[in-house]
């Protein structure tokens, strides 16, 4: 399971497996939703640790970057586009533990919370 966290991108099936493994204490990562609050409130992946809207990126990016330099972070959004952009910026600045949930919540078949 740890090998999935070494990739750049994961799909929805892999994210489901990782969330299950995290619940069992086998892996550790943060799942960060970068959609807007209105989108998040309409439904989000069960297991999301925090909401960090991309429209407020300038306000939260540096702090999250600094807090997670030694951690694995998976970014998710609606389709994987915004989360991929956030991942790219973090990687450009030297964060080696960021992954993009490719396909986003629209391809996710696991548990959704409202």
Automatic annotation (TrEMBL):
Pfam families: Rhodanese (PF00581). InterPro entries: GlpE_sulfurtransferase, Rhodanese-like_dom, Rhodanese-like_dom_sf. Residues 25-113 form the Rhodanese domain. It comes from the Bacteria. SMART domains: RHOD. PANTHER family: FAD-DEPENDENT OXIDOREDUCTASE, PYRIDINE NUCLEOTIDE-DISULPHIDE OXIDOREDUCTASE. This is Rhodanese-like domain-containing protein.
């Amino acid at each position: 399971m740890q090998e999935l966290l070494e990739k750049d991108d994961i799909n929805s099936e892999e994210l489901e497996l990782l969330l299950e493994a995290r619940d069992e204490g086998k892996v550790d990562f943060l799942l960060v939703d970068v959609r807007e609050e209105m989108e998040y409130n309409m439904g989000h992946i069960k297991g999301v640790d925090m909401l960090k809207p991309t429209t407020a990126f300038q306000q939260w990016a540096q702090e999250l970057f600094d807090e997670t330099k030694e951690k694995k972070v998976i970014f998710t959004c609606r389709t994987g586009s915004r989360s991929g952009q956030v991942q790219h910026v973090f990687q450009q600045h030297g964060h080696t533990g960021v992954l993009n949930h490719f396909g986003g919540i629209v391809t996710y078949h696991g548990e959704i919370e409202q």
